Amino acid sequence: MTIQDNLFWERVLELAQDKNAQAAYEYFVSEAQLLKVENNIATIYLDLEQKKLYWERNLEDVIVTAGFEVYVRQIQPHYVFEKTEETYETLQSSSSVAQDRSIGASLPFNSNQTGLKEKYTFDNFVQGPGNAWAKAAALAVSSDPGGSYNPLFVYGGPGLGKTHLLNAIGNEILTTTPHARIKYVPAETFLNDLIEGIRLSGMDNFKNNYRNLDVLLIDDIQILTKKVSTQEEFFNTFNALHGNNKQIVLTSDRNPDQLEGLEERLVTRFKWGLTQDITPPDFETRIAILRNKILEFDLQFPNETVEYLAGQFDTNVRDLEGALKDINLFASIQGLHEITIEVASQAIRSRKQDTSSVKVIPIERIQSEVGNFYGVSIKEMKGSRRVQHIVQARQIAMYLAREMTDNSLPKIGRAFGGKDHSTVLHAHSKVKTSLKTDENLVREIEAIKSKIK
Ligand code: ADP
Ligand code: MG
Predict the structure, then answer these.
(1) How many other C-beta atoms can be found within 10 angstroms of the C-beta atom of residue 23?
(2) pLDDT score at 374
(3) DSSP code of 36?
(4) How deeply is 134 buried, as exposed, middle or buried, from its count of CB atoms within 10 A (0-12, 13-18, 19+)?
(5) Which of 255, 299, 322, 362 lies 20 to 30 Å from 155 when distance is taken between CA atoms?
(6) Atom 18, ligand 1: which residue's CA is nearest?
(7) Could you tell me if 411 and 308 are in contact, meaning their C-beta atoms sit under 8 angstroms apart?
């Protein structure tokens, strides 16, 4: 019998217990045994023939439910009242599975095997609106592994802290339970271990490594899509762990439903627990992340520079960190200690050019072109009159200043008569939204842009 079969049987017993009175359960069910599952037929041993009727009337739906849960197929029962030689064999092999697992369980677990990166903790994970729920879920999992959020599925774009959170969960659990069997793996490593396992050791090693865990943290599972044989083994691993209330946490760049090429039964399982997304950090969070990371360097960053940097990289925390490393290198070569905006902008120039080319367009130029177009003076642009056509011109100019230059939001705000960065952000998102539906606006902005360039 496979681990899946065991899981199926556990589930049958569990559902039967929920459904039947205690006395009936004990009499009709507790002595029953699953002998094998083959061709969608579960052979079930009952010690007395009279019990069959009770099973047929009361427990067939339980078998169907458990069958769909575990195999995602319709399973039909076949009742037998003695154990033939063939069934003895099956039983023995099933107990050897159990033995394997307990041997694995008694192997000492070396903390080097966890694969965890110690530097990623909850302490140094900065919380913001985009990641607060994912962090809360990760904390909940850490304090109650295998509890209510199993599996936890975290998804989001690159560089937003998925790997960080995954490791933080593992590290946090280790602080309270130092001997917990925790494994962090990129899905890619899982894949390689599996291939190695098939090639070299007939899988025992692989199974020992993965099925005896208390917590499996598996990163970037989107790479498992379209790899059918891996999915099969991942499915088995998942069931073995989940069936024993062991915690599984998964990350992906997409939500489960968007994982095309992933078997439906896996998608279904991924959604059994809790699914949380991470979205890019807002301006304040980026500032907080930068302030945090800056402490690692022996450099002095005036607020202005921090704001400037937070304005430059707005979709990806990894880029923010990369920028600080560039600056650190640049400063050490130049022998600088204080990082002014000018120093920062020189240091990150090549990084910016990688993503979008740097255009040196003065904000004043944008203001005057937009002003000409809509008949609004620079003074009005910088002022705070809330007349419709002025407000609109002002917002469009702020939008373009953000799109066409590499100025930080605060700096753009200052160029508009000392407005707050949140005003710029608001203007930007308002215009961006209008552009989705307003074709006139699209044409107008294109016309203005072509004059500015
Ligand atoms: P992902 O796995 O989502 O691609 P990572 O977890 O590798 O992203 O994060 C990229 C870098 O950004 C890491 O060095 C990580 O520590 C850092 N990072 C991401 N989010 C945060 C955050 N909220 N607070 C602090 N550091 C973060
Ligand atoms: Mg990652």
Answers:
(1) 8
(2) 94
(3) E
(4) buried
(5) 322
(6) 161
(7) yes
Please identify every stretch of the chain with a pLDDT value under 70, giving residue numbers as ranges. Answer: 85-112, 201-202, 353-359
d(CA 225, CA 258): 10
- Ligand number nearest CA of 162 is 1
CA distance 221 to 249: 10
**Residue of the CA atom closest to atom 9 of ligand 1:** 161
CA-only gyration radius of the chain, Å: 30
pTM: 0.60
Q: 294 C-alpha vs ligand 2 centroid, how far in Å?
A: 22
Residues within 6 Å of ligand 1 by CB? 120, 124-126, 131, 158-164, 289, 317-318, 321
366-371 long-range contacts (CB < 8 A, ≥24 apart) are: 366/397, 366/400, 366/401, 366/404, 366/405, 366/452, 367/397, 367/401, 367/415, 367/416, 369/448, 369/451, 369/452, 370/396, 370/397, 370/400, 370/448, 371/397
Q: Is 378 exposed, middle or buried (0-12, 13-18, 19+ CB in 10 A)?
A: middle
**Closest alpha carbon to 251 in 274, 232, 268, 284:** 274
